[in-house]
Each structure stands twice: as C-alpha cells, then as structure tokens.
Specification:
Elements: E1 9-13, H1 18-29, E2 33-38, H2 45-51, E3 54-56, E4 69-72, H3 79-88, E5 93-96, H4 103-110, E6 119-122, H5 129-139, E7 143-153, H6 169-182, E8 190-197, E9 208-214, E10 220-228, H7 236-239, E11 241-249, E12 252-257, E13 260-265, E14 270-274, H8 280-292, H9 301-320
Parallel strand pairs: 1-2, 1-4, 2-3, 4-5, 5-6, 7-10
Antiparallel strand pairs: 7-11, 8-9, 9-10, 11-12, 12-13, 13-14
Helix pairs in contact: 1-8, 3-4, 6-9
C-alpha cells in the first residue's frame, strides 16, 4: 500500500500583516500545510483559527525538522537578521522583497549558511505569465530603452512605509522593476538623473521618484514609481498596483501593461495577448513549493542584492542631485 506524500509544512513570520496573511492563505490554497504563524501579539489568532495553525511569538520557537519552508514577511529593515538566523539554523526560506532596505543591511545575510541555495527572494513579477515572453523578446533583440511606470495605491503612507530607514517608494515598490530590468542586462548601470518628492502625502520618505539609468550596453532605463491616493481601474495585486513596462528595440516595441502584452514589429505587424488576472502570491507559493523540491528560484540572493545596490545608487542620486553608481 502506497502512503500519500505529506503536504509541505510552512511557517509564516509576520502573518498578521498584509503580505504575511496573503502568503499564508496562498500556501494553503496550493496544498501546503501552514502549521505555524509567528506574531508577538494576538493579531494572528483569527488567521490561525482559519488555517488550523499554531501561533508562536518568535522564530526561535520554530524547528527545522518540523518545517519545509519559512516565509518571512516583515518590514524590510527587520528581515535580514531574521533570515540569516533561519538560514544558519538550517531552514529553507522565502523572504519578501527586497532582500534588505540597503546593501549595508544585506551584508548580514551574505555570510549566512546556504544563502545561495536555501533562500528564495519573493519578487512576484517573475510569476506573471507575461514575464517569460517579454524576457525572451528582450534577449532576442537589441534594446534601446526600457521605460517603466509603477504605481501602488495607498490611502495613506504610515507605519513602516513612513520610516526613512525603509527607503521610501523606490525601495518598497520601484525595486520590483529595478530587479526585473537589471536581470536582462549585464554590468552596473550609471544613474544619469534622479528626482524625488514627498508632496503627495507629506510623509518623511520619498513618495514619487523618477530616475534615468544607463547600462554598459547603452540601454537607457527610465523608472517612474510612486504611491497614489487614486486607485486606477485595473492593475496587479487585485487592482492596487498599476504597472507599465515599455521596451523599445531596433526590431520593434513591446508594451506590458498589467495583464496585456502588445508587440509592434518593425515591418508594421502588431500582436496583442491578454492574460486572465492572476494572484501573484498564489503563483509564487507554487514556485516556492518547487523551490522546496530543489528547483532554483527565479530570484536568488545574488540577483536580489544587485537590485538593492542599484536602488541604493538611485537613493543616493536623489539625495545629492549628482550621479551615483552601485557600490561594487
């Protein structure tokens, strides 16, 4: 008689937060057993009752022999030390992006045991079905420019997002595009110009950032990222994130806008493909279970660190008004 395979066992750190609760429910939907929720207070109790999980106050209450994956979904400044501790204790970890608020914060993880093969960094854009098509098209063409508009709907900027140590919108939201675009090109880009504003909400962090960078290949990357009090009629993450990536090449143009992909060929041909809206957290949970089975994640520590270094350069340029380059 064959014994059925045991469902993967998952713990979620920061389960009461927006991202943590979505992770917990997503892993349950894809067949994992969410056994532990880590929170210091009782905020996670309703979710624990919903999922049949146990609430524990600290990651020190977790044991690697009892879990197949630990998901860390905390404010960015808190994640590196916790992830490093989990890796050093032998866990396999999925951490929310970015890997740290800055490269200095990421340094604690660089020497952690297994950081290059037991850590998956949760850049959800890689889970969208448009990304594989767009990435292959970029590889097959001579790219002149990439223009990105990334807008996340927020009624207010408070809590950890308003903490200057978290880096503002370029680190919290814009880094999704920084990571994806930088994965297409080699070398450190130069930051040609950057401007930042906190005029939309009046918070102590940059809320609107525009930056122009140039990769060694000559490709120009322009990023506009901001938090918006106005919710757009469509978007990713159940409508609260509007993303446009416009790629111009010598052979044509491809435009990714939320759940549509439009291509214009040099000879005048046009092609459009629309995708059903998808839950990127659900797709990421499926990818994370494959990671538990030995598959290499879409974003490793090395690539996540590179994106953080580029974001550091953007932040430095915004603060100084001068050019900046990522720290080697």
């Amino acid at each position: 008689m064959t014994t059925a395979a045991r469902p993967p066992r998952v713990a979620v750190v920061g389960a009461a937060g927006w991202a943590g609760s979505r992770h917990a429910r997503a892993f349950t939907k894809v067949g994992a057993n969410v056994t532990h929720l880590v929170e210091k207070d009782e905020r996670a109790l309703p979710l624990a009752q919903e999922l049949g999980a146990q609430v524990v106050p600290s990651v020190q209450d977790l044991r690697p022999e009892h879990l197949d994956l630990v998901v860390v979904a905390l404010p960015t400044t808190l994640q590196p030390a916790i992830c490093a501790d989990l890796l050093n204790r032998g866990f396999r970890v999925l951490t929310e992006k970015p890997v740290a608020a800055d490269a200095e914060g990421a340094a604690i993880m660089a020497s952690a045991s297994g950081v290059n093969h037991r850590l998956m960094v949760g850049y959800t854009l890689h889970q969208h079905p448009a990304v594989e098509l767009l990435s292959q098209w970029v590889r097959d063409n001579d790219v002149i420019a990439v223009n990105v508009r990334s807008v996340a709907h927020k009624e207010s900027i408070d809590s950890w997002r308003a903490d200057p140590k978290e880096g503002g919108v370029a680190v919290v939201n814009g880094i999704h595009a920084i990571e994806l675009v930088s994965s297409w090109f080699e070398g450190d880009p130069k930051v040609l110009a950057t401007s930042a504003s906190s005029g939309l909400y009046g918070s102590p962090v940059p809320e609107h950032v525009v930056s122009t960078l140039e990769f060694p290949s000559g490709t120009v990357f322009t990023l506009q990222t901001y938090w918006s009090p106005w919710q757009e009629p469509q978007g990713l993450n159940q409508g609260d994130w509007s993303l446009t990536i416009d790629v111009v090449t010598t052979g044509g143009r491809m435009l990714w806008f939320n759940d549509s992909l439009h291509k214009w060929d040099r000879d005048g041909g046009q092609h459009e493909r629309n995708f059903e809206p998808s839950d990127l957290f659900l797709r990421q949970a499926e990818a994370a279970l494959r990671f538990c089975g030995g598959e290499t994640p879409a974003v490793t520590f090395a690539q996540a660190l590179r994106a953080t270094e580029i974001a550091d350069a953007v932040q430095t340029a915004a603060a100084s008004g001068t050019r900046a380059m990522p720290t080697p």
